Amino acid sequence: xxxKNTLTxxxxxxxxxxxxxxxxQTQVKQQELRSTPPQALPGSVVMLYSPGCExxxxxxxxxxxxxxxxxRLRLVNVDEQPQAAREYNVRGVPTIVxxxxxxxxxxxxxxxxPQTLEDFCRGIYKSNSxx
Length: 131
Hints:
The protein is of the alpha+beta class. The chain is built from four helices and four strands; from the N terminus they run H-E-H-E-H-E-E-H. Strand 1, helix 2 and strand 2 form a beta-alpha-beta unit.
């Protein structure tokens, strides 16, 4: 076996276990978050929107349904509350921010599908699962 092959195998066996463990831990955490009642979730979500935004108009009924289901969501109209837009450093709408204890954990500036928004409210963020 060549030195290159030996080093490749050594790298594979050193790197793969931590990656596999991290992936497993992530899946376990996501399962826990998905089984937690909405009222018991650690975070909350702020959706900053503008009434003239078509994407915002599409998302508002989804947000309202999640609010009825007990998710902690807050809607902020940036046209009526420009100070909130500055506070959250809004560059586009809809801006959706996930917070824990008032500290931003992650955000997106795009529409989310209903399932992705629910995951987002649960603290599960996958940047590749947008609408």
